[in-house]
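Hypothesis: this fold can be encoded by more than one sequence.
Test: take the structure tokens below, design a sequence, compare later.
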């Protein structure tokens, strides 16, 4: 299972996603450009010492990521047609999240194999990126039997 972040803007969100991915055994793809320097102290602060326990793949742009992507691209979007609980996940899915402020451009939206929305109480429409990634990863791991085994 992989989490892909499309041009993330907030270092703290990336750090929190890295920590979640480390704890749950997922890898993370960062699709550049990012809205902060990779060595930003806010990434390290949020990820803490967990950053050494997650595989991070950086991609120069969407085209580079797309050429290397193996597995179904599941886009999480407020414009999703499929509620999270109705999608059947596969172990090699790539869970794609857009920019915090803008989501993904139309060509990336069109490329996704599935477009999923996290249902929530109206009139609210979105959660924090790191919270969304944790919710979706947890559901995907539950469905695929991918939860790590405790020591």
């Amino acid at each position: 299972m992989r989490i892909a972040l499309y041009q993330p803007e907030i270092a703290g969100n990336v750090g929190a996603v890295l920590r979640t991915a480390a704890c749950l055994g997922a890898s993370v793809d960062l699709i550049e450009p990012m809205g902060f320097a990779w060595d930003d102290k806010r990434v390290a602060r949020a990820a803490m010492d967990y950053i050494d326990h997650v595989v991070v793949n950086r991609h120069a742009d969407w085209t580079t990521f797309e050429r290397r992507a193996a597995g179904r691209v599941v886009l999480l979007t407020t414009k999703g047609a499929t509620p999270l609980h109705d999608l059947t996940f596969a172990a090699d899915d790539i869970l794609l999240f857009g920019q915090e402020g803008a989501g993904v451009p139309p060509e990336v939206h069109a490329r996704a194999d599935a477009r999923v929305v996290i249902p929530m109480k109206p009139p609210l429409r979105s959660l924090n990126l790191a919270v969304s990634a944790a919710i979706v990863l947890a559901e995907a791991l539950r469905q695929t039997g991918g939860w790590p085994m405790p020591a």
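The mean pLDDT is 93. Strands lie at 2-6, 27-31, 56-59, 73-76, 82-83, 94-97, 114-117.
Hypothesis status: open.
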